[in-house]
Amino acid sequence: MPKRYWIIIITYVATQLSALIGVPVLASLGIARGFDAIALWSVISFTIATIIIIALLKPDMKEAQMRSDRSSGLKIFGWSIAGVFLALFAQAIAALIETELLGIPAGSENTMDLMNIAREAPLFILLPVVFAPITEEIIFRKVIFGQIYKRSNFWLAVIISALVFGAFHFDFQHMLVYFSMGLVFAFLYVKTKSIITPIVAHMAMNSFVVLSQLFYSEEDIRRMQEQLQTILTGGLL
Q1: Of 25, 127, 190, 213, which has the most beta carbons under 10 Å away?
Q2: Domain residue spans of the chain
């Protein structure tokens, strides 16, 4: 794996851990406290990390421009839009399997925790809608999935990258959901040969999730999930 990829991974991990220092510093300086401090530090740290990561990917960008098999802008746009629906459908199927077959409670504590921060500090919304899709797709699809895919096969690359994806979200209970998302985003990446496609699809999907979480109560969301599961169960059976 190229040295710049290792630097990208280290940058991402360091950014995730930096909140342990950055948030208390903001609070001690009286700049921000509580959720506001978390939101402000997240945006600052991920802005810097995103700039560094994109700068490190310049050689890859030049290489992509020279490829004869690269997808057109129209194809990337089309698959990005289709990818949103594919990801939401795959996620719904995975959630149905978790609840109906595995007995895992619906809903992700990780998502709920993030939305609690977003409700109290709206600036935090930039993290799941903008920064997370960019950095996560570069890390988990381009770097991890891409490097394994070159040396093995699609499914092994998807499984490993999805496991790491779920691990970084500290949500092992819903690993099947993360696998379903990883599968769709990896497919989009391979199909269009452009990391832009899963990034855009990931952004759109996260935007949909954030808006639904902000404007609907947990009871409303749970009711909609149950209705969707009923429709899917009827369709599958």
Answers
A1: 127
A2: 71-236
